[in-house]
Structures are given as C-alpha cells and as structure tokens.
C-alpha cells in the first residue's frame, strides 16, 4: 500500500474551493453545458432510480427558474424550494449535483463543494469521464501519480511482447491522460495480449474509483476543518491493487457482522451474559437426512415451495434475471434449486435439523423477520442492511457490487411465507433470535390437525357437512397462501369470510387462520387487490383474528410496510381499516406520523350503516384513536374537531355501551370546550351525563380526573341558571352519591388535579344556601388553600388561583371567567367591559330583558354565597394564601391571585361585616398599595383602587391608608381623569384639613431668567410643551419633560410685545396677539413651531381669545372687537373698557376696568351684566385682572375692596355662590379640577382648595414682582408662571 507524498499532495480548503467554484461557475453561466451535463446524468439513471426522477426534474426546473430570474426574492424562494425538495429524497448523483449548484447560487461555497465532491463518491467513473473531467484532472489526478505510474508499468509489460516493428507512437504511454484508457491497439494485438490489457484496464478503473472515494472523504474533511483549523489532516493511503480493496471491504463487513451479533447476543465488554460461551455451528446442508424421510405429502408440499422459489415476479424475486434457475441465497454456484429446497424437507421432531441457509440472514445469522432482496440478488434482514447503509456503505455486503439506489425494496413476502411454513413444520427448532421471533406462537401444522366431530343429534349429516366445509376452508387457505393468481386468492378471502360469518368458530379453526403464512396471505391481498368487497372482507377477518389472538397483531406489526399499507387504505376511504389500526395499538407518536386525523373525523361524522358488523365499530375505533391524538399537546388538533363540527357527533358517544368510548369522548369534548368555548352550549344542551357518571366508579384515576375536568369545564356557561341545572344533574343523578365519591377521590388525587376536583365539589355543595358546617365545603376550600400555598407544585398553585377566580360564576360565551371585566366595570372602567362583550358577541337583546334580569339575579345570589364561604373560611385564611401568591415571582400566579383577592375584598364591602374585612386588610393592604404604585397597566391600578376603597369604608382602614398617602397621591392624581374611583378616593382623603394640606404640597422645580426679553406677558401649555410670550415680541418654546424646562426654540416675528397666547386644541394651532396690530397663527404639531398665517387686526391686541372662525380681542380703546378670519370686524360693548376676556361655548365674558363683569352672547349679540361696576375711589380704579369659567362657575379676580379678591358666580343665574377671602391683589388665575391658583402682586402664588374654598399653601417667587400669567400642564401636576421681571418659574405637586 502506497502513501501519498505529503509535500506534493497536501491541499488546503481554499484550493479545493477554488477548483470546485470554478467548475460550478462555469456550469451556471453556460446554459448549454449545464443542460448537457443534466441530460447525461438522466441517461445514466437505473430503472430503480426512475421513481425519484419526477421530483428531481421538478427540482432542476425550479433551479433553472432561479438562474434565469432577476428578482432576488423569486430566486431565493425558488432555491429554498428546490433545496427542500432534494433533501427530502434519497441521496443520488443527480440530487448532489443539483444541490451543489443551489448552494453555489446561495453563496454557500463550502456546502456547494461538499455536494459536488459527493458526486465523485457516488459515481466516480461518470464524474471523472463525462461530468467534470477538468475538475478531476485539477483536483484528483495530482494525487494519483503512483497509480498512473504503476498502470504504465503494467501496460508496458503487456505491450513489450507486441511486434517491435510497430511505431512507438501508436502505443506511447508517456502521456498521463490515461484517466479513461484507450483501446486503439486492441485490433493489432493477439488474443491473450488484448485480453490481458482489457483486464488490466478494468482493474485500473476499479482502483481509480476506490481512490476517488477515499480522496473525496479526505477533501470533505479538509473543507470541514478549514484553513484555520487545529487538526492536521493527512491524505489517505493510495490503493494500488484490487486485493487491498477486497481485504478492506471484507474486514469492514466482518466487523459489521460482529457488531450486529454482539448487539443481539447481549455482549458487554467482550463477554456474554446469559448465553453459552460458544454457539453451536449451524449445518449448511441437511439434504442427506431429508431425502430418506420425505413422505408423499411432504414432497408435494416441497414441490409447491420449489415452484414458489422459481417464481420471478411479484413482490419478492428470489431468482435474479442474470442467472436463470440459480438460487441467490448463500453459495449459488454449487447448489441447484432442487438441492436448495431439500433443506425444507427436514422432518419435524429431529432436533439436529437447522433452518435452511437461505432462510438465514448472512449478517445476523438469524431467521429472516423482514427479508428484502437487493438488486444484486442477495437477501438480507431489513434492519441489518439498513444499518449497513446508514454507516455510509453503498455496496452489497456479499457481492461488493455498487448499489445504484440505497432505498430498500418491499418485503420479500414469498420468502417470508416459506419461512413461516418451515417454522410450522419444525416447531422448537427456531434458534434464539430477535425479540419479535421469540413471540411467535408455536402450533401444530394447520393442514394436518383434525377437527373435532360434531355433537349434533344429526351427527352423520352434520358431520359430513362440517367435514366438507372444513375441507373447503383448508382449500381456501391453501389458495390464499400458495396461489400466484390474484383472482384465486381474492376468491379464497371471500370464502373464508363467508365461513366465518356462517359457522361457529372453534379454537382449532381460529388457530389455523391465525398462523403467520395465512396472515401474510391476507396482507398480500391488501397490497395487490383492487376489489372493494375483497378488501373489506380482508380487514374484517384480520380484525376478528387480531381481536382474538395477540400473535396476529405481532405478525402485522413486524413489518413497517404492512402497517403503512393498512394506513394508506384507510386514508383512501376504506373505513374498516380504522378498526385494524386501533387493534394494532400504535403509540401516540406513531399515530401522529400516520397523519390520519382527517380520515378519523370523516368516519366519526359519517353514519355509515352499510359496514360489516365487526368486533369494534369503525366509529368507536375512530373516537378512541382521536382521543389518543388529542391527549398530546404538541399540536392543537382540537380546533379542527370544532371547525368541522365533528364534536356534535361525538356527543352521542357519551351514551356508548363501551365505557372506554364514553371516557374518550369526554376527553375530546373537554379539549374542544377549552379550544373554542362556543361549542360548550351545544354540548351542555345535547349531552346525556348519566352514563358518564356511571363510568366514574369503574374508571382508573386518570379517567376519573378526565370526567371531573369535563364537568368542571361544562359548567362555565354564560347562563347561571343553566350552570346550576347541570350541577344539579351531576349532584343528584347516577347510581351513587357524587359528592361523597368526589370527596373520597379528592383525598387520594395527585396534587395537580386537586384544584379542579375541589372546585367542582365546592360548587355542588353551594347549590343550596350554605349551612353552618359542611365537610364537603371545608375539605374543598382547605384543598384550594393548601395547593395555593405549596410552591413545590407551581402548576397546582396557578390552577388553584384560577379555580377561585372562576368560582365567581360569570363567564363569557367562550367560557372565560368574567371576574376581571366585571370588577373593572364596577371600578368605573366600563369601556374595557363593553369591548370584551363586543368581542365575545354577547349582546343584550331587548326581548330578553326579563330573562336577563333573572339571570343577573341568579348570578348575584351565587356570587354572594360563594364569596361568603370563601372569605369566612377559618376567619379569612384564604386572604393569607392570596397575599403570598401576589408576592410570588411567577407573574402568572401573581396576576391571578391579585384578581381573586380584589374580587373577594370588593365583595366584603357589599356584605355585612363580620370582622373579616379587618383580617383581609392586614393581609392585603400593603400588597394593593404596592401594585398601585408599581403597575404600569391602568386596569391593574384601577383594580387595586377598588380594593383600597373597600378598606377605607372603616375608620381603621382610612387611618391605615393615611399613612400611605404620600405613596399613592401621585398615582391618584394621574388616574383622576380616567378613573372616577381615583377622584372619589382623593375626595375621601382630603376631607380633613390636615390630610388636605398633606395632599397638595408643592415643590419648586425650576426658575429661569428671561429678563433680556422683558416681561413675560403670556404663557400657555400644550401636551409636553410650554409657550411664553415676551414684551420684546419674542415667543419661546420650552419642553416640560422631567423637572427642568428646556428651551427648544426662540422666535421673534412680532415687532412689538406679545400680549396674548391662545391654543385651539382641535387644530393644534397657536394664536399670538401683539401690540404690532397683528395676530399670527402657528403650527405646533412638530418639534419646532412655524408661522402659517398673519392677520392684520388694525388695532393693538391687548388680550386675545379664539374660536374656530373668529377671534375676540381687546383694542387700545373701549369695547371688544370681534374679528372674522375673512377680514371683517365689529366693535361690541363700546361703553366699557375691557381688562380681561374668557370665551366658553359661544359666550364671551368680559372683566372691565370699572370692576364690572359682563356676558355677551356672540350668536345674538345680547349683553348681560353679572356684576355692576363701581365708582373710582380717590381716583383709583379696581379692574378685574383675571376671569376664568370652570364647571359652570365664573371666577373673577380683582383688588380686595372688602377683603374678598376672588368671587365665584353661577354662570346660569349669575348668583354669587362663593368667594376666596384673600387680601392680595390678584393679577392672574388658573384652575385645576381640585385647586385654584392665584398669581398675586408681591411675587406670591396662593393655592386654594376649590371645594372647601380654603387656602392650602402660599408659593414664593423670591422677588417683589407681579405674577402676570399662569398655566398648568395636561396632568395638572406642574404649575408654570411668568412675572413682570422676566422670570419663568415652575412648581410641581410633591
């Protein structure tokens, strides 16, 4: 054996990629070359590969589409489709070549190179001679120089005896282009020379093939290692002669055989356990013993078997087409067919006889279980040869011939039948084999055992009839097993089926029909017959036999292809096949792989009365198999059962005679209700629950829980009265006490099942008014609390919490608890409740108002009873468990416990207090406050407020909450606009003067000096922005995020002071009035503002308010001007000098210099006086500096003439309804939902309680100035003011 020189033959990954990429690039760019190569590959396909040709051609067409398209998306999609298609079929030269092109287009160069190299491995001769000769020369040939040298030397020896007068050029061997040896000298040579040269060239081809395969593996390892890999990969040793090839393959095969035997004999660490140290050798020829002992019946049977062996067509070929009349088992050269079958003539009872060699797998040395005959004519055990191929081999283990397809053929049924027949005649001679063979039923030969005589009174006639019938049955069985004419076999099936229907089946007859040869005969009918009646009869017989004899099932499941055929016929519409599938007892995984769900649904939905009367009804078998499928959670098939309306048919199975069918139906319907609760009403309306109750006592624990779970889900209807009706049926019907049975079951059930059982038991107990003591109730609630507290079983914790929530008793049409939406509705967030009702399509019909009222009363009564017993149990013990659940790290458990706790605490507020409310407050108040502070969801915060409100109904609860006031005030203010509940709690907390002061503390946030722009004359807010107008005509834009004002824009387009800023909320427009006699309109939707329109007002704008189509402003003189945006204007109230304005709902309110207040109806022009003016005292006027209209009240601010600077008027009847007793001179004012802010002369801001009209706080600006303007942010939490000395200052609620 030669070793390649490392210096000359080592190669790098990049070099391999360079050569392979060059080849694939050339193929991809030259369409004619590509089509030629693909055509060449197709022409070389063997008949065994033709089955895969269609998908391969489809993949090639898809690849062409990807090459030709210019759309990258289409190309990617086409490549992915072609790749997926190729990878789903067995590896071949064609598929590997296409994959190399696909990977190249996908820029996966290494995968492309690996696939292309695999072409050289699968068919080296084709690859180097016709597909890629250039690539072979560039990549492989340099490594094969020693092979070429040896070939040239051998060739020279052969040619040395050739005539010396021939021109040397005719047989020059100096050229290395001998990849494909030429034969141009053959015609000039002698016979021996030509023969020797041909033999040498054939050997050379084989050696090249083997070296190609070796170097393909080497190149692939180099590619996988990469240029940067740590491993040093050496080239393989070159193969220089055929003997090396044979030696390596024999060693490999021998090692493989040893592995197989070691595995089957139970070897461990080279030693045997439970077996003899050395097995007895198996005799290869037993013909000597058989010749003298064969009886005529034996010889006749043997002749039939010989005839079968010579049969060359059908499912299994025992004789190859190349060697006629030669057996393919063992050493075919020395044994004739007659001699071969002599092995089958061994008389029974001779312990020295061994199985014929042809019945034994050459790999495992065991009798065939599932024999397959390869294209080489050799037969192997399917599992053994499949493992051989899975190891990467592509040759026949015995002949060493290359296999053109590694896809195994169907089972050789002819051989299998012969083996079964031999086993019957030689009981006890079967060697220790695989587990399947050990399970074979040993019995007497079927054709020799007499049938017991009839005991009928008419014994002579009936016995003769019986004998004749038995003889006919035997003949039918013989035809089924031995006949090669399909029609005869089909007739035999019908005869056997008729015999079965008409006669009483004796055990001997059952044994006769259950033998493997007969069962295999039935299976061959399934593979070959197209007669529907015959197929139905076959399934009927197999089901009857399989239900009586386990050996029949073992025979059927021994060969995978048999099961696949049964499944295929079921999918094609043969409903009887489902019974046999059920009897085969497939695993859930196996059942999923069969993909029979739609066929099962079709059988269940279709009521077919024309089917044969079988041991199990096809519909029953389908229900049982469907239940088995739905028990797994990997894929959700319940939706298909619901959408196809099959569940409506399954309801009738609740009344089935077979208890296991009833329980399977219970499981299916329960999963359907969980998948789509809308089917719950139909099931509740149609289901007969009494048979289900009767199934409970005899069921296993798992089946019992399935029944309880079904009932628990069934009583989640959206009609309370219907729920209670079903609960009464469960409680009262049936042959035993349901509640007592559930109590006993609850005490022994596993942890994860307890919450469901306890929930159902508790509902049954509360169908009547709760008694003072109930063992059922106490046990159920104790179980729920125990599960809720046991963190070792998190699933049980969540189930317990969800059960408590569902006990509230209201459900959507889909069966989901309405506990949370109902609580949100009670907390004032009715929008969430209405949205849910709309999604669930639950609408109140006007005609059902009386019924709805009755349902609501029933629901309220149930909720009160349930909440009372849960809250009262052990004086509030449940609240402790819920508090622990809310603290859980599991978000799911915490959320469900929060809803349950909120519901029960709310119910405490509507029930008489028995002291439980205090216990609940001790356990849960901190938890609810923590959720209120930390939750981001407004619904969670609102629910926590609902519980908190229940606590503050008691003086102790209000006192406890006051200590947390600082923690919740900010959240209450944020929620007060969206939640009426927050507003109510704020009112409750602000009842006391001390509490009120604590609630409205303000903290200075920022103070900014803008004195370079003069006075701050106006200030407004919109969303998160603050706008200020200055006396030098500047407008500044500030962002109000956080606690600091950031200047984002400063713009000066007015030439004089900006006296007024006004925001029209609907249009996101800012209006600015100025002393330069213009009003500008600004767009404020973006980060920066920009002017979009300028209106000439023809007079100075002292103060400005705006409606959609008009603006009202105070001019330099008397009156107020109404300016239309089209340019028209008119002057109103000309007798008054106006100081301030307020515009609300088309009514303009004017505060005048003479201290009067007037209202102008802009639609009619009507003027009304709210407060009359006063004369000047000592020549000094007292104007109305600020005017605000809020919630139907008019607030006016002026100088404190009589100790009252702010007066409050009713906007409807103009009556004075209140005042603020401040002595400060108020220059500006703004009002929130609870507070009144007064900006005063002297640099102070007074904060007043709007409801109590009491002063809460005084804010100091720090300078002796005037507060000219004020505004609040959108949340009413930040107050911003502007002063006469050019300062902007902000305070926030602390």
From TrEMBL:
- WD repeat windows: 1051-1084, 1260-1294
The record's InterPro entries line, in alphabetical order, gives: ARM-like (IPR011989), ARM-type_fold (IPR016024), ARM_LIN (IPR055566), ARM_LIN_2nd (IPR056514), E3_ubiquitin-ligase_LIN (IPR052858), LIN_N (IPR056512), RING-Ubox_PUB (IPR045210), Ubox_domain (IPR003613)
Asked whether the keyword Transferase is assigned, the reply is yes
State where composition is biased (Polar residues). Answer: 284-294, 319-335
Q: Which UniProt keywords apply?
A: Transferase, Ubl conjugation pathway, WD repeat
Question: According to the UniProt entry, what is the EC number of this protein?
Answer: 2.3.2.27
The GO terms this record gives for MF are: ubiquitin protein ligase activity
Report the record's Gene Ontology biological process terms: protein ubiquitination
Give the reactions, separated by semicolons, that this protein catalyses. Answer: S-ubiquitinyl-[E2 ubiquitin-conjugating enzyme]-L-cysteine + [acceptor protein]-L-lysine = [E2 ubiquitin-conjugating enzyme]-L-cysteine + N(6)-ubiquitinyl-[acceptor protein]-L-lysine
Question: Region labeled Disordered — which residues?
Answer: 278-303, 319-358
CDD domains named in the record? RING-Ubox_PUB
**Pathway participation:** Protein modification; protein ubiquitination
What is the main EC category here? Answer: transferase
Q: Which residues form the U-box domain?
A: 354-429
Q: What is this protein called?
A: RING-type E3 ubiquitin transferase
């Amino acid at each position: 054996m030669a070793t390649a020189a490392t210096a000359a033959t080592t190669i790098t990954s990049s070099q391999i990629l360079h050569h392979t990429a060059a080849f694939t690039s050339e193929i991809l760019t030259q369409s004619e070359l590509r089509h030629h190569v693909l055509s060449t590959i197709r022409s070389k396909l063997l008949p065994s590969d033709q089955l895969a040709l269609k998908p391969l051609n489809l993949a090639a067409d898809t690849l062409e589409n990807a090459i030709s398209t210019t759309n990258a998306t289409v190309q990617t999609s086409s490549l992915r489709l072609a790749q997926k298609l190729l990878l789903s079929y067995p590896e071949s030269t064609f598929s590997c070549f296409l994959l190399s092109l696909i990977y190249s287009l996908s820029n996966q160069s290494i995968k492309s190179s690996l696939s292309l190299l695999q072409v050289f491995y699968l068919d080296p001769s084709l690859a180097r001679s016709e597909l890629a000769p250039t690539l072979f020369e560039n990549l492989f040939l340099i490594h094969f120089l020693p092979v070429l040298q040896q070939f040239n030397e051998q060739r020279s020896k052969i040619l040395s005896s050739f005539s010396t007068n021939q021109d040397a050029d005719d047989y020059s061997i100096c050229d290395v282009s001998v990849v494909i040896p030429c034969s141009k000298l053959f015609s000039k040579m002698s016979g021996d020379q030509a023969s020797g040269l041909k033999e040498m060239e054939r050997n050379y081809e084989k050696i090249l093939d083997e070296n190609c395969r070796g170097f393909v593996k080497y190149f692939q390892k180099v590619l996988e290692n990469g240029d940067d890999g740590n491993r040093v990969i050496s080239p393989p040793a070159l193969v220089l002669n055929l003997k090396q090839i044979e030696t390596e393959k024999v060693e490999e095969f021998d090692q493989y055989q040893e592995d197989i035997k070691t595995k089957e004999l139970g070897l461990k660490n080279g030693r045997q356990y439970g077996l003899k140290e050395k097995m007895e050798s198996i005799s290869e020829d037993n013909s000597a013993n058989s010749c003298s002992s064969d009886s005529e019946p034996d010889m006749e049977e043997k002749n039939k078997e010989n005839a079968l062996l010579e049969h060359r067509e059908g499912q299994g070929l025992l004789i190859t087409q190349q060697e006629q009349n030669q057996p393919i088992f063992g050493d075919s050269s020395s044994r004739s067919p007659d001699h071969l079958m002599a092995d089958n003539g061994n008389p029974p009872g001779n312990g020295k006889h061994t199985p014929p060699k042809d019945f034994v797998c050459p790999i495992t040395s065991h009798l065939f279980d599932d024999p397959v005959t390869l294209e080489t004519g050799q037969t192997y055990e399917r599992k053994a040869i499949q493992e051989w191929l899975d190891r990467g081999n592509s040759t026949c283990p015995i002949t060493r011939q290359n296999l053109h397809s590694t896809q195994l053929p169907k089972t050789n049924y002819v051989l299998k039948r012969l083996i079964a027949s031999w086993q019957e005649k030689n009981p006890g001679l079967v060697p220790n084999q695989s587990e399947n063979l050990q399970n074979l039923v040993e019995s007497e030969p079927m054709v020799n055992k007499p049938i017991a005589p009839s005991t009928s009174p008419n014994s002579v006639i009936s016995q003769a009839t019986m004998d004749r019938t038995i003889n006919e049955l035997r003949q039918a069985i013989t035809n089924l097993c031995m006949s090669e004419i399909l029609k005869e076999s089909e007739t035999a099936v019908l005869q056997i089926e008729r015999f079965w229907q008409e006669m009483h089946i004796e055990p001997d007859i059952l044994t006769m029909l259950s033998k493997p040869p007969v069962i295999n005969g039935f299976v061959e009918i399934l593979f070959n017959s197209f007669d529907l009646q015959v197929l139905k009869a076959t399934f009927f017989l197999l089901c009857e036999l399989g239900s009586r004899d386990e050996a029949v099932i073992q025979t059927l499941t021994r060969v995978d292809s048999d099961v696949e055929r049964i499944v295929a016929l079921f999918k094609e519409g043969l409903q009887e096949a489902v019974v046999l599938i059920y009897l085969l007892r497939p695993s859930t995984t196996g059942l999923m792989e069969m993909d029979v769900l739609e066929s099962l649904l079709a059988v269940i939905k279709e009521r077919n009365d024309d089917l044969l009367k079988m041991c199990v009804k096809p519909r029953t078998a389908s229900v049982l198999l469907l239940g088995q499928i739905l028990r797994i959670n990997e894929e959700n098939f319940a939706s298909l059962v619901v959408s196809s309306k099959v569940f409506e048919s399954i309801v009738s199975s609740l009344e089935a005679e077979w208890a296991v069918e009833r329980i399977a139906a219970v499981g299916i319907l329960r999963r359907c209700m969980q998948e789509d609760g809308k089917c719950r009403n139909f099931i509740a309306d149609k289901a007969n629950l009494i048979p289900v109750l009767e199934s409970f006592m005899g069921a296993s624990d798992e089946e019992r829980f399935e029944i309880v779970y079904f009932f628990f889900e069934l009583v989640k209807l959206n009609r309370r009265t219907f729920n209670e009706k079903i609960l009464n049926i469960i409680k009262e019907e049936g042959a035993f006490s349901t509640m007592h049975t559930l109590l006993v079951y609850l005490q022994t059930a596993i942890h994860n099942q307890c919450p469901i059982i306890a929930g159902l038991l508790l509902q049954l107990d509360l169908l009547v008014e709760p008694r003072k003591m109930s063992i059922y109730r106490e046990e159920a609630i104790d179980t729920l609390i125990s599960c809720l507290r046991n963190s070792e079983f998190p699933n049980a914790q969540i189930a317990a919490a969800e059960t408590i929530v569902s006990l509230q008793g209201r459900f959507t049409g889909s069966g989901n608890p309405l506990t949370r939406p109902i609580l949100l509705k009670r907390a004032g967030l009715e929008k969430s409740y209405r949205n849910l009702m709309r999604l669930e399509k639950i609408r109140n019909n006007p005609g059902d108002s009386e019924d709805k009222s009755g349902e609501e009363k029933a629901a309220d009564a149930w909720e009160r009873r349930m909440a009372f017993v849960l809250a009262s149990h052990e004086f509030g013990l449940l609240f402790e468990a819920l508090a622990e659940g809310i603290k859980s790290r599991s978000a799911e458990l915490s959320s469900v416990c929060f809803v349950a706790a909120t519901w029960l605490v709310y119910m405490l507020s509507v029930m008489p207090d028995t002291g439980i409310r205090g216990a609940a407050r001790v356990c849960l108040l901190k938890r609810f406050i923590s959720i209120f502070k930390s939750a981001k969801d407004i619904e969670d915060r609102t629910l926590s407020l609902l519980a908190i409100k229940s606590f503050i109904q008691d003086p102790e609860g209000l006192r406890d909450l006051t200590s947390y006031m600082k923690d919740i005030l900010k959240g209450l203010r944020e929620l007060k606009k969206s939640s009426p509940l927050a507003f109510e709690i704020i009112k409750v907390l602000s009842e006391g003067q001390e509490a009120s002061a604590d609630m409205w503390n303000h903290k200075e946030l920022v103070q900014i000096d803008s004195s370079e722009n003069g006075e701050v004359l106006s200030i407004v807010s919109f969303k998160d922005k603050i706008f200020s107008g200055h006396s030098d005509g500047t407008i500044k834009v500030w962002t109000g995020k956080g606690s600091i004002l950031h200047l984002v824009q400063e713009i000066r387009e007015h030439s004089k002071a900006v006296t007024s800023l006004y925001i029209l909320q609907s249009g996101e427009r800012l209006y600015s009035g100025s002393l330069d006699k213009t009003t500008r309109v600004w767009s404020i939707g973006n980060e920066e503002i920009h002017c979009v329109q300028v209106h000439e007002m023809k007079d100075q704008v002292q103060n400005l308010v705006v409606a959609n189509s008009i603006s009202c402003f105070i001019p330099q003189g008397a009156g107020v001007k109404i300016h239309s945006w089209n340019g028209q204007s008119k002057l109103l109230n000309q007798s008054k000098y106006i100081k301030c304005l307020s515009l609300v709902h088309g009514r303009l309110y004017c505060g005048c210099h003479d201290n009067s207040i007037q209202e102008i109806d802009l639609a009619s022009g009507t003027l009304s006086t709210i407060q009359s003016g006063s004369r000047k005292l000592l020549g000094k006027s007292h104007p109305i500096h600020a005017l605000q209209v809020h919630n139907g009240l008019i607030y006016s601010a002026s100088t404190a003439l009589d100790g009252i600077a702010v007066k409050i008027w009713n906007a409807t009847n103009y009556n004075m309804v209140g005042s603020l007793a401040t002595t400060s001179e108020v220059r500006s004012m703004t009002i929130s939902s609870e507070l009144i802010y007064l900006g005063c002369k002297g640099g102070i801001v007074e904060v007043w309680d709007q409801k109590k009209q009491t002063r809460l706080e005084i804010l100091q600006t720090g300078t002796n100035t005037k507060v000219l303007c004020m505004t609040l942010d959108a949340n009413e939490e930040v107050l911003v003011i502007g002063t006469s000395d050019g300062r902007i200052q902000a305070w926030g609620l602390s």
